[in-house]
Design goal:
Number of domains: 1
CATH topology: Metallo-beta-lactamase, Chain A
Strand content: 15-25%
Number of strands: 14
Structural class: alpha/beta
Number of helices: 8
Strand order of the largest sheet: 6-5-4-3-2-1-13
Order of helices and strands: HHEEEHEHEHEEEEEHEHEHEE
CATH superfamily: Ribonuclease Z/Hydroxyacylglutathione hydrolase-like
Helix content: 10-25%
CATH class: Alpha Beta
C-alpha cells in the first residue's frame, strides 16, 4: 500500500514543536500503488521522501542513500504557510539527526517562503562537504550576507537558465541532476522574472535500477510550459514527483503526472495551513507535518 505514514519517531521526538506537530486537518487516505507487494518492500528499504515543512522535503535515494534536501529553509510564511520553528531550522543548519550527512541541497527559487540566504550560508559554513544547487537570483543574495566568503562559492552550483531553455545536466555526490526552468505560478501576470528551477535527481539503486525524484518548486501547471522538456521527461521514468499543491486542482492532473511528467507517483507540497478542500477531501497524498513519509518507487535506468 502506497501511503503517507505517521511522522517518524526520531523526528517527532526531537522536533515536536507546537504547530509543526499539531494534527493536520484533512489528512489524506492511504493510496493504492500499481506496484506489487514485493516491489514496494524493496522501495521502502531503499528510499523515502520525508516532509520538512512548506515546500521542504528530504529524500534518501539509491543504494548508497544519497541524502537530498529541497527548499528546506525559508524566512517568510506570508501568514498562510507553516512557520519554520527555530529549533527545526537549527537542526537543519547544524546537521542534527535526521538532517545529518546531507549531500545536496536544492533551492527552487529566491522567494522568502522557499529560501533563506542567511540560514543557507550558515549551513554551508557548518559543512564544507555540502553542495548547494540554486538559481543565480538566490546566489546573488547569498553573496550579500555578512558571513559569506569567496571560499563558499566552491560549494555552490549556480543555475542560470531562460524559461524553456535546454536542461543543465551534471553529476554531483553520486547523483545525476537535470535542472530546468519553467514559469512560476501566475505567469505572466505575476512573477514573470522569477527564475523557478525544477530538479530531477537520479541515483543508482544497482542491478540496472534507479531512484529518481523531481521537485517543481512553484511551477505553473500549464502543460505547454513543459513541452520544451518533453524528450528528456519522457526518456526516463520518475519514481516520485513533488508538485506544488495547486497541481492537484487541475482537471488534467492524471495526464500531467502520467504523460507530461512521466511519474509513477506524486506528493503535493507547499500546502497552506488551511488545507484546501480539494486536498482534504481527495485521495492523493500531500505533506503538512514534519516527518510524514512517502515511498520512492524504483524505476529502470
Amino acid at each position: 500500500m502506497f501511503q503517507i505514514t505517521a511522522p517518524l519517531s526520531v523526528i517527532a521526538g526531537a522536533l515536536c514543536l507546537l504547530s509543526a506537530c499539531a494534527e493536520a486537518p484533512g489528512q489524506t487516505a492511504p493510496q493504492t500503488s500499481e506496484h506489487s507487494a514485493s516491489e514496494q518492500s524493496a522501495t521502502a528499504q531503499n528510499g523515502a521522501a520525508t516532509a520538512i515543512l512548506n515546500a521542504g522535503v528530504m529524500a534518501n535515494v539509491g543504494a548508497e542513500s544519497v541524502k537530498l534536501l529541497f527548499d528546506p529553509l525559508y524566512d517568510n510564511h506570508f501568514g498562510s504557510l507553516a512557520e519554520l520553528p527555530p529549533e527545526l531550522a537549527e537542526a537543519i543548519i547544524t546537521g542534527a539527526a535526521p538532517y545529518d550527512d546531507v549531500d545536496l541541497v536544492f533551492v527552487s527559487h529566491a522567494h522568502g517562503d522557499h529560501f533563506s540566504a542567511s540560514m543557507l550560508v550558515e549551513m554551508l559554513l557548518n559543512d564544507s562537504d555540502l553542495w548547494l544547487i540554486a538559481p543565480g537570483q538566490a546566489y546573488d543574495q547569498l553573496k550579500e550576507q555578512e558571513n559569506w566568503h569567496h571560499g563558499l562559492a566552491t560549494q555552490v552550483r549556480t543555475i542560470t537558465l531562460r524559461n524553456g531553455e535546454a536542461t543543465q545536466t551534471f553529476d554531483l555526490a553520486g547523483a545525476t541532476i537535470k535542472a530546468f526552468r519553467s514559469p512560476h505560478s501566475g505567469w505572466p501576470e505575476r512573477h514573470s522574472e522569477t527564475h523557478n528551477i525544477s530538479y530531477r535527481v537520479s541515483v543508482s539503486s544497482g542491478d540496472g535500477e534507479v531512484m529518481r525524484v523531481m521537485h517543481l518548486g512553484d511551477a505553473d501547471p500549464a502543460t505547454q510550459h513543459f513541452a520544451p522538456f518533453a524528450d528528456f521527461l519522457s526518456a526516463k521514468r520518475t519514481g516520485l514527483v513533488m508538485v506544488p499543491f495547486w497541481f492537484y486542482q487541475s482537471d488534467d492532473l492524471d495526464a500531467i503526472l502520467e504523460e507530461t511528467l512521466n511519474a509513477d507517483t506524486s506528493v503535493a507540497v507547499h500546502v497552506p495551513v488551511n488545507v484546501p478542500a480539494y486536498l482534504s477531501e481527495g485521495t492523493r497524498p500531500y505533506f503538512t507535518q514534519v516527518g510524514e513519509v512517502v515511498e520512492i518507487p524504483i524505476t529502470a535506468q
